Amino acid sequence: MSPSAPAPDQLRVATWNLNSMRARLPALDRFLTRARPDVLCLQETKAAAVSDDARRLFDRHGYGIEHVGANAYNGVAIVARHAIVDVRGSGDFDDEALDREPRLISAVVEAPIRVRVASVYVPHGRTLDHWHFTFKLAFLAALAERASAWIGDAHTIVAGDLNVAPTDSDVFHPDAFVGATHVSPPERTALGGLYDVGLVDVDAAVWGVRARRFTWWNHGIGYSRNLGMRIDHIAVDGPLAERVTTTWIDHAERDAERPSDHAALLADFRLDPPAR
Q1: Domain of residue 179, CATH code
Q2: What is the mean pLDDT of each run of 10 residues along the chain (276 residues)?
Q3: Closest Cα partner for 253 from 244, 242, 245, 261?
């Protein structure tokens, strides 16, 4: 399930909640060497700015980075082997939900397929009666409205930790989540609103909605027993979705020493549109 080599004849897109960029620099080094994505969306960088060590690592691999962060929480970035232009991050959207915390950055990446990319870290929600849950729903609604405009302009990729498991097949057992966030009807409806603007969940499109392919496991025995959830997503516009060849969940780094609680999710797209 983990990519063992680059895909030079395809557009490779990845998303990864690092749970601290500083702590995961060795893992990033290995991942970029092995998988070499064209575009990598990062979440939970937990930094106000990209450190000198991180910039040297990305420079050495031939990547640029655009980042928005504020403190030791949240933080998102777009990393690419191609020019990154028209960058906007939380604070620039003139929207209270999207600007409140550093959870969204978007840019155009001048890859072989020119794409508008958004790296997203949706609020957790905490509990169903918490103000953070209301914030989560408002964030997803605002993101859907923004994505609708992006799709009308160019190929679009929205990738990141969306903190919602779309169906009961996307959690290890629904009984463990009764009354909890990530699976509630309002959250699933809000996530559906994002896809309804014209985006396609490419991992589900490739493997089916009942595939039980998880991307997050709590630290401890959860990973070894596969007690996980699928809350990391790569969503793309319909024409780009027609080019997808496969998706990957990177267990190589999730099974490594000092891993993030998330595995990276990757998707490969053929460079030429499919014949009709």
Answers
A1: 3.60.10.10
A2: 93 98 98 98 98 98 97 95 98 98 98 97 98 98 98 95 98 96 98 98 97 96 96 98 98 96 98 82
A3: 261
Report yes or no: 156 and 237 within 8 Å, Cβ to Cβ.
yes
How many helices (H) and strands (E) in the chain?
9, 14
Q: Which of 230, 246, 227 is nearest to 191 (CA)?
A: 230
Residue 219 inside a domain? The answer is yes
Global pTM?
Answer: 0.97
Distance, CA of 164 to CA of 187 (rounded, Å):
7
Confirm if 237 and 195 have CB atoms less than 8 A apart: no
SS3 content of the chain, % helix, strand, coil (to 5): 30, 30, 40
Could you please report the per-residue DSSP string of 191-215? HHHHHHTTEEEHHHHHH-TT-----
Q: Which of 119, 121, 137 is nearest to 129 (CA)?
A: 137
The residue type found at 225 is: R
Which residue stretches of 197-261 are H helix?
A: 202-207, 221-224, 238-241, 251-254
The residues, any chain, with a CB within 8 Å of residue 208's CB and separated by 6 or more, are: none
For residue 249, the enclosing domain spans 10-270
Could you tell me the two tokens for 148? 């609708």
Residue 2 covered by a domain = no
